[in-house]
Amino acid sequence: MATPNHTSPSHSLFILLGIPGLEDQHTWISLPFLLSYLVAVLGNSLLVFIIMTERSLHEPMYFFLCMLGVADLILSTTTVPKALAIFWFHAGEISLDGCVTQIFFIHATFIAESGILLAMAFDRYVAICDPLRYTTVLSRAVIIRVGLAVVLRSFSVILPDVFLVKRLPFCHSNMLPHTYCEHMAVAKFACADIRVNVWYGLSVLLSTVVVDALLILVSYIFILNAVFQLPSRGALQKALGTCGSHLGVISMFYLPGIFTIIAQRFGHHVPPYIHILLANVCMLAPPMLNPIIYGVKTRQIRECVVSTLSSQWKLC
Q1: What's the mean pLDDT when you consider all of the chain?
Q2: In sequence order, which residues have a C-beta less than 8 Å from that of residue 72 and are 6 or more positions away?
Q3: Partner of 194 for a Cys bridge, out of 162, 176, 187, 282, CB 3.0 to 4.6 A?
Q4: Which residue has the higher pLDDT, 4 or 107?
Q5: What is the 8-class DSSP label of residue 289?
Q6: Where are the transmembrane segments (predicted)?
Q7: Which residues contact 163 (CB under 8 A, 6 or more apart)?
Q8: What's the pLDDT at 147?
C-alpha cells in the first residue's frame, strides 16, 4: 500500500457520479428511486402513526415494527434525496464532513435494523414457544431497554468509522462512482494504508449483522418446530401468518445484501454499474417493501389502515 503523500493537499470535497456507464439513463433510473422513496416515506410514516395512536396495537410486536419503520425512514432519507439530486441536477458535490455523516447514518441504521429484526424474532419465539410468559418477558420496560440497546450498539460500533475515514488523506481522485458515500468505497480513494478500515469494517459486519442473522435462524428453527406441533389448524395458520410477515421482511433485508456480497466477490467481470445498482437495491427495497408486507399480511394493521383512511376521507 502506498504511503501518504504529504506534499499533495487532501480533498475536502467529493463528487458523487451516480451510476457511471448509465449517465444517459439517469433520468429514467430516477423514476424507480422516486417511486420507492415516496412509498417508503408514506408507508412507514402511516405505519408509525397508526401504531402510536391505535391503542389496540400497543403490543411488543408492533412496537418493534414501529422502530423498524423509523429506521426505514432514516435509511431512505439519508440516501435517496441525494441520489435524485445527482440524477436530476448533476448535484453530486458533497463535503468530506457530509460524506462521513452519510456513512455514519447509513451504516448505523443498517445495523440498527438488523438488531430490530433480531428483537422481532425473539418476540415471535416467546409468543409461540412460551405464550404464558409473553407479557412478563416482553414488558414495556424490556421493550424500551431493547430499543436503547439496539441504538447504542449501532452508534457505538459505527462511530469509529467516522474517525477512521476522517484520518485518511485523500490526494487521489475525488470522483466517487456511486450515488452515496459508503465506508470502503470512500476509503479506497485514500493515499494511505487502509488495512485498519478494512479489518474494522469486516469485524463490525461479522459481530453484528452476521451474528444477528445466525441468531434469527436459530430462533426460527425453534419457532417452526413449535408451530408444526400445534394441535389446532386455526392456531397453526395464525402462527404461520404472523411468522410469514416477519420472514418476508427478513428476506428483503438480508437477501439483497447477500447478492451484493456475492457479486463483489465473484463478479469480477460484472460491469461496475451492476454493483452500484445492487448496492442501491439494499437501500431501496427494505424501506419500500416492509410497510407493504406488514400492511397486507397483518390483519390488525390492515384494518386500522382502512379505518384511518376512511375516517380521513369522510372528514374531507
Answers
A1: 89
A2: 40, 44, 113, 286, 287, 290, 291
A3: 187
A4: 107
A5: H
A6: 28-50, 62-91, 103-122, 142-159, 204-227, 239-262, 274-293
A7: none
A8: 97
Nearest CA among 142, 129, 103 for reference residue 227: 129
Identify the helix (H) or strand (E) that includes residue 15. strand 13-16
Tell me how far apart the alpha carbons of residues 260 and 270 are, in angstroms, rounded to a whole number: 12
152 pLDDT more than 50:
yes
Domain assignments of the chain as residue spans, ordered by start:
15-303
- State the Cα–Cα distance between residues 38 and 81, nearest whole angstrom: 11
Greatest alpha-carbon span in the chain? 75
**C-alpha cell at position 12:** 475536502
Confirm if 169 and 4 have CB atoms less than 8 A apart: yes
Q: How far apart are CA 310 and CA 316, in angstroms?
A: 10
Residue 40 DSSP SS3: helix
With the CA atoms of 20, 22, 24 and 28 taken in that order, what torsion angle do they form, in degrees rounded to the nearest 10? Answer: -120
Check if the beta carbon of residue 244 is closer than 8 Å to that of residue 297. yes
